[in-house]
């Protein structure tokens, strides 16, 4: 039965290490970590913020506060997933803390605002550097990719003891806003609200120049970036670009969308290659996160995914090429919105999180990579837990060995006093046990078929043609109707009814 075990991690609160690089309340951290360990949790995840560590100046890293956190996690017997967070914290759903990217980088942006993602109207977004500067020596002689590489190198050197003891089992490499491989197409800071289609973000001068060059090389110097794709809160039908038979289906539209989505993939590929060079030989896995853009999934144009850089249509798989790119780096594909059900979404968003999850996970499995995931919003009810359990083992458990399909791990968002409050914690513990397929906590990943051998060097580069081969749409693997390892004990189970009732009552008092 252990081969059915799916380890469960919990995200540490934002702000464990403050923006001033101090571990403020170490005692509370240790107390909470012990509770998590007692609840059966396998490990925790922490964002390692660029804006905190390299805030003093180029290459002036200060790891001391993080070392204390890592030590506490190790002392409590938990494993650690570390996120190389090269983005700003603040400006996205659930961000309660603001951690800008380093000041010396923002200062470069004062004289050269084109280092940031920019929309058609010229609004800049300081959350993350545009991928247009990945290979430009604009930062004290370094390129953006070199900055990311140097940062990870310093992490590896400074944390080498924790890497050797096996504390850090997973490095997720931040590849965009919110740490996700995407464009910042739906920033709340610029007035976006759910379920707006968002906007393309390729109007900084560097990406504009690159597009001009690409269009010219393709024999169409007259093609320009789209100026008819609407605004943040539009519906697809109201824009010329996305409406039925709109620009997006024309040759020009397809050329742009291919360029826009390929740029994103190449960006991820290059930074993961750096990460792989840095961590090669360490006993850990690399991971990259793909965003769960579930709104407008049900309409032909998939507008919100397209503006985010996922060129996904009914007859074109926009995610599997990303999975193929990750496969060369032995990286895990990390996805989100595992807890969401279609029935919970408002009908006008044309949202289909369940089908989206199935498509993305299936694409990853078909490319023979591991897939992991997280919930997108904080939830304490059994309905959400059961949906996560279903996605973790879509065809249930296998009493005689490994289940047909199994996620590599799930990270629960997020540690809070609310989670540790008794009713919530009681249900959460059942959830952990069910993730573990009713087995006791297992400290040795080998026992559940997770081989953490030394990270191998990335395989040779995959040509863009070969990556795009993976756009051929295929039916996702079939999912069972409901999970055989449920928290509620099946639909209408007593625990489920109670937990839902309790969370509804609690919600009234918020
Ligand atoms: C790690 O970083 C801390 C603070 O930044 C420093 O004091 C320490 O010497 C570094 N250790 C190693 C092994 O680099
Ligand atoms: C997946 O992403 C979430 C959110 O960033 C993170 O907490 C988790 O550790 C990631 N999982 C892996 C396997 O990297
Ligand atoms: C879109 O174009 C196709 C093929 O030209 C046509 O059959 C279809 O009716 C058009 N749809 C709309 C909504 O205009």
UniProtKB/TrEMBL annotation:
<keyword id="KW-0326">Glycosidase</keyword>
<feature type="binding site">
    <location>
        <position position="289"/>
    </location>
    <ligand>
        <name>substrate</name>
    </ligand>
</feature>
<feature type="binding site">
    <location>
        <position position="414"/>
    </location>
    <ligand>
        <name>substrate</name>
    </ligand>
</feature>
<dbReference type="InterPro" id="IPR001554">
    <property type="entry name" value="Glyco_hydro_14"/>
</dbReference>
<feature type="active site" description="Proton donor">
    <location>
        <position position="180"/>
    </location>
</feature>
<feature type="binding site">
    <location>
        <position position="336"/>
    </location>
    <ligand>
        <name>substrate</name>
    </ligand>
</feature>
<feature type="binding site">
    <location>
        <begin position="375"/>
        <end position="376"/>
    </location>
    <ligand>
        <name>substrate</name>
    </ligand>
</feature>
<protein>
    <recommendedName>
        <fullName>Beta-amylase</fullName>
        <ecNumber>3.2.1.2</ecNumber>
    </recommendedName>
</protein>
<keyword id="KW-0119">Carbohydrate metabolism</keyword>
<keyword id="KW-0732">Signal</keyword>
<comment type="similarity">
    <text>Belongs to the glycosyl hydrolase 14 family.</text>
</comment>
<dbReference type="InterPro" id="IPR017853">
    <property type="entry name" value="GH"/>
</dbReference>
<dbReference type="InterPro" id="IPR018238">
    <property type="entry name" value="Glyco_hydro_14_CS"/>
</dbReference>
<feature type="binding site">
    <location>
        <position position="87"/>
    </location>
    <ligand>
        <name>substrate</name>
    </ligand>
</feature>
<dbReference type="InterPro" id="IPR001371">
    <property type="entry name" value="Glyco_hydro_14B_pln"/>
</dbReference>
<keyword id="KW-0378">Hydrolase</keyword>
<feature type="binding site">
    <location>
        <position position="294"/>
    </location>
    <ligand>
        <name>substrate</name>
    </ligand>
</feature>
<dbReference type="GO" id="GO:0016161">
    <property type="term" value="F:beta-amylase activity"/>
</dbReference>
<dbReference type="Pfam" id="PF01373">
    <property type="entry name" value="Glyco_hydro_14"/>
</dbReference>
<feature type="signal peptide">
    <location>
        <begin position="1"/>
        <end position="18"/>
    </location>
</feature>
<dbReference type="GO" id="GO:0000272">
    <property type="term" value="P:polysaccharide catabolic process"/>
</dbReference>
<feature type="active site" description="Proton acceptor">
    <location>
        <position position="374"/>
    </location>
</feature>
<feature type="binding site">
    <location>
        <position position="95"/>
    </location>
    <ligand>
        <name>substrate</name>
    </ligand>
</feature>
<keyword id="KW-0624">Polysaccharide degradation</keyword>
<feature type="binding site">
    <location>
        <position position="47"/>
    </location>
    <ligand>
        <name>substrate</name>
    </ligand>
</feature>
